[in-house]
Specification:
The complex is a heterodimer of chains A (about 250) and B (about 400). Chain A is an alpha+beta fold and about 250 residues long. In chain A, about 35% of the residues lie in helices and about 25% in strands. Chain A has helices spanning about 20-25, 45-50, 55-65, 70, 85-95, 105, 115-120, 135-150, 215-220, and strands at about 1-15, 15, 75-80, 130, 155-165, 180-190, 195-200, 225-230, 235-240. In chain A, strands 1, 2, 3, 4, 5, 6, 7, 8 and 9 form a nine-stranded mixed sheet that branches. In chain A, a hairpin with a 2-residue loop joins strand 1 and strand 2. The longest helix of chain A has 15 residues, at about 135-150. The two termini of chain A are about 20 Å apart. The chains are: A alpha+beta (about 250), B alpha/beta (about 400). Strand 4 (about 130) of chain A pairs antiparallel with strand 6 of chain B, so a sheet runs across the interface.
Chain lengths: ~250, ~400
């Protein structure tokens, strides 16, 4: 198992803001809502206007998860299954009608737009990655964050996971819980309770919850359960609270 | 778990780009500075004849059972993967499918196929029947590779614009060092599509001629397409991925910081990570897009990082800017250099341009045709949209 310390977390979903709301949700989970976007008032107006809904969600969780000093000194991993595909659909339609694209819109639909916007807003010049892994985007994002700690063990890394519901064009093609959410985890090798993470082959005891894996992870983190197994059949991703590892 | 002492060997490499398919075709044309493979496309940007570095001819079809993944981007990927199929299969047998991982970099995935599907939807009211979301979602690229080879370790796609391909190799090395995988199929693919050609055209960064990096007359990039695939293992021989440097610009979404601080830092970090002094680098593959901004930022950053820089070239005047594949592709060129030495020397890919160097950038020595260098580590730069910088050092391993 690879050990890591979860220093802090923050999450956002329509109607659920702040730690208290998420602690309540974890105690009595229900499917997450799909409509709504955070106001993201902490962003300068120019940047905020350019943020897609998913960018606003992910940056909201990211900013809540670390203070100003930390914000500019951490590695950054952004994980999203769909990224800015809803925004790209509009561009595809313009292309089909042979209409010119807005260069600004184009540059904000790249998958790493969230990472770019965060690094600008946080004045963070450290490395960042943006990944996508179908149904396993949360687990692979977690793993990608661990690769940052492998290269730079003393620098905490911020993992931000999130998705918005797919627009009508592609939604019928994808089976998943439709919801809008973002979760940020500040991970490090610092003191504190350790979490072990590993990949096991086969389906094992993996569960597939009716809400995003990221939300299930948070529910596990705030619960007394020692072990969490997530997966889709081929692989099982396992998280384990490490006994007696307090600070 | 971390095994920092082990190496990261790029033990096999396959590639496809405008110059051809496989090392046997591409390597001699790269050294010859062959620019005969560019073509003009009228169908990409309305009202513009666009010069591009396209992969010509038919590509291998995606196998029947994987038709959900059938798109041009995955066919490009497949054309590179076929070249290292034997090595991948051997690694799977040796380590087991669960100990192999896949990390693919791409900025386009199946966007060109999605564009066609949407065109059909606007005309007929429904998406093209052959279209599947797995072609368009970024994770689909890595998923395709995993299903193709029956790989059941970690499987994900990195999309950080023009540094995606380089970052895929970075993550592969760390997955090996963490002990999560014993071998990683890593690489990148990008395909020409309406989105990128129109987007970059509207950003006014595409030249009407073949890109002309570091020239006083440079006026933009030329888009290309292609793919590259490596098998990365924990061996100490072969070509080693020895150094990694990464940074963010924190400046602007589509323009580099003119001071080039992020680029300089990425190069310095890569040297530090490789435990090398600047003078130990024999060659630098520039990001060298040929846009006025990139070269004006990159060359002074190279001079600051190196003092006295090694012979350098941009290979984009030969294969175009392959965007999400570029960082992996150019690592592939470095791999070819280190694996094809002659008389104990490296053969350097020439910097092809109009010969009229921008005086402001002249301190970076540009490799001319036929230039050689001692066998030593080489470096490649990738700087992406959204301010994502990644520099790699490849080096000869212990023989």
């Amino acid at each position: 198992m690879i050990g890591v310390t979860l220093e802090r977390w923050a999450a956002w979903s329509p109607g659920r803001e702040g730690a208290r709301a998420w602690q309540d949700w974890c105690a009595r989970p229900v499917p997450l809502e799909e409509g709504g976007v955070p106001d993201a008032r902490f962003l300068p107006p120019l940047l905020r206007r350019r943020c897609s809904p998913i960018a606003r969600m992910m940056l909201t969780a990211a900013f809540e998860c670390c203070d100003e000093e930390q914000r500019s000194h951490i590695g950054m991993v952004f994980a999203s299954r769909h990224g800015n595909i809803n925004e790209s659909v509009g561009l595809f339609e313009r292309l089909a009608r042979r209409e010119p694209l807005s260069p600004t819109r184009f540059s904000h639909t790249v998958h790493n737009a969230q990472a770019g916007l965060f690094s600008i807003a946080a004045a963070n010049r450290f490395g960042s990655s943006s990944i996508s892994a179908r149904e396993e985007t949360f687990a692979c994002g977690f793993l990608e964050a661990l690769t940052f700690l492998e290269r730079d063990p003393n620098r905490p890394v911020l993992l931000v996971v999130g998705d918005a519901p797919l627009s009508d064009t592609f939604a019928p093609l994808v089976e998943e819980a439709r919801c809008a959410y973002a979760l940020a985890l500040l991970l490090s090798n610092g003191p504190g309770p350790r979490i072990g993470f590993e990949l096991a082959s086969g389906a094992g005891d993996a569960v597939s919850p009716p809400w995003p894996d990221a939300a299930e992870f948070l529910r596990w983190h705030l619960s007394g359960a020692a072990r969490l197994a997530l997966g889709t059949g081929v692989r099982t991703w396992v998280w384990q609270k490490v006994e007696g590892s307090d600070g | 778990m971390t095994d920092a002492s082990a190496g990261c060997a790029l033990s096999a490499m396959g590639m496809v780009n405008a110059l051809g398919r496989g090392a046997d075709e591409i390597w001699p044309r790269l050294l010859a500075g062959d620019q005969s493979h560019f073509c003009v496309r009228e169908d990409l940007v309305p009202g513009r004849s666009l010069l591009v570095a396209e992969v010509s001819g038919s590509l291998p079809p995606v196998p029947k059972g994987l038709s959900a993944y059938a798109c041009r981007n995955n066919s490009l990927l497949l054309a590179a993967l076929e070249q290292i199929e034997t090595e991948i299969s051997e690694a799977r047998r040796a380590f087991g499918s669960g100990r192999l991982g896949v990390v693919i970099g791409t900025s386009t995935c199946g966007v060109s196929d999605a564009e066609a599907a949407i065109r059909e939807q606007l005309e007929t009211g429904r998406l093209a029947p052959a279209f599947d979301y797995a072609q368009l979602e970024f994770g689909g690229a890595a998923s395709f590779v995993a299903e193709l080879f029956g790989i059941s370790g970690p499987v994900y796609t990195i999309s950080t614009a023009c540094s995606s391909g380089a970052r895929a190799l970075v993550s592969a090395r760390s997955l090996l060092a963490l002990g999560v995988c014993d071998a990683v199929v890593c690489g990148a693919a990008d395909s020409l599509c309406g989105l990128t050609t129109n987007g970059f055209s509207r950003l006014q960064v595409i030249s009407d001629r073949i890109t002309n990096p570091c020239s006083v007359n440079r006026d933009g990039l030329t888009l290309g397409e292609g793919s590259v695939a490596f098998l990365a293992t924990r061996a100490n021989g072969g070509v080693q991925l020895r150094g990694i440097g990464e940074s963010s610009e924190a400046h602007h979404m589509s323009a580099p910081d003119p001071k080039g601080a992020g680029a300089e830092w990425a190069m310095r970090q890569a040297l530090l990570d490789a435990d090398l002094e600047p003078e130990e680098i024999a060659y630098l593959n520039l990001h060298g897009t040929g846009t006025p901004l990139n070269d004006a930022m990159e060359c002074p950053a190279v001079v600051r990082a190196f003092g006295s820089p090694p012979p350098s070239s941009s290979t984009k005047p030969l294969v175009g800017h392959t965007l999400g594949a570029a960082g992996g592709m150019e690592a592939g060129f470095c791999w070819l250099m280190l694996g094809n030495t002659r008389g104990g020397e490296l053969l350097l890919p020439p910097h092809c341009y109009d010969g009229q160097v921008d005086a402001a950038l002249a301190e970076v020595p540009l490799a001319s045709k036929g230039m050689r260098a001692r066998v030593a580590p080489v470096m490649t730069n990738s700087f992406g949209f959204g301010g994502n910088n990644c520099t790699l050092v490849l080096a000869p391993g212990a023989s």
